[in-house]
Amino acid sequence: MIKKIRIVLPVFWLMTLVASNAQGKHDWDKIKSYKIAFITERLTLSPKEAQDFWPLYNEYEAQKIEFHKKEHQEIKDKIKNLDALSSKEADALLNQMKKLEEEKHRAHKAYVERVSNTISAKKTIILLQSEEAFKRQLIRQYRKKRGEDSGADN
Fold first, then answer.
1. So where are the chain's domains?
2. Gap between the Cα atoms of 103 and 94, Å rounded
3. Which one, 27, 34, 78, 151, has least CB within 10 Å?
4. Radius of gyration of the chain from Cα atoms?
5. What CA–CA distance (Å, rounded) separates 49 from 122?
6. Rounded to an integer, what distance in angstroms lies between the CA atom of residue 65 and that of residue 104?
7. Cβ–Cβ < 8 Å for 25, 151
8. In three state form, how does the secondary structure of 19-79 look?
9. pLDDT (tens digit, 9 = 90+) per residue, 19-41?
10. Are 11 and 137 in contact (CB under 8 A)?
């Protein structure tokens, strides 16, 4: 029973957060806080594990933000004007996209390696699954809220 409450409570908080944010400005700090709570709940880290794990997690999250910014600044703007690109420019853009994907892959691989040296392999797998579950939950809530809003407009 307590285990079910420990799982349901973060999900409830997440759903409340997403529902409230869909109505106004997105509060990414709150989403980040709920994601941390969601992961914390699932991992059940010891104090030592938490002390070693969270700096690695935060470092990788910062890397992902930088990759996203780089992708937006260097690639997505060019893709918007794809018809205006020459064949040579398109080749260069494609190579740039491949290079960025390789960088992301290397960063993720290094992150998983470092995390698995900090927490158990089982907890590392739970972490990866939890991150995906959190994303799916956010998307589900967003779609549900968007569907309700668009239905009210009709």
1. 1-45+121-154, 64-118
2. 14
3. 151
4. 19
5. 13
6. 11
7. no
8. HHHHCCCCCHHHHHHHHHHHHHHHHCCCHHHHHHHHHHHHHHHHHHHHHHHHHHHHHHHHH
9. 554 444 467 888 888 999 999 99
10. yes
* The two structure tokens encoding residue 115: 């995390």
Distance CA 63, CA 89 (A): 27
pLDDT digits (tens, 9 = 90+) for 31-70: 888 999 999 999 999 999 999 999 999 999 999 999 999 8
Token representation of residue 135: 């994303």
Q: Are the beta carbons of 42 and 126 closer than 8 angstroms?
A: yes
- Written as six digits, the tokens of 31 are 């989403």
Supply φ then ψ for residue 133, to 5 degrees. -65, -40
d(CA 96, CA 90): 10
Whole-number Å distance between alpha carbons of 130 and 124: 10
pTM summary value: 0.71
Place of tokens 């890397």: 63
Amino acid at 11: V
Q: Phi, psi at residue 86, to the nearest 5°? A: -75, 170
The answer for residues whose C-beta is within 8 angstroms of residue 39's C-beta and 6 or more apart is 57, 127, 130, 131, 134
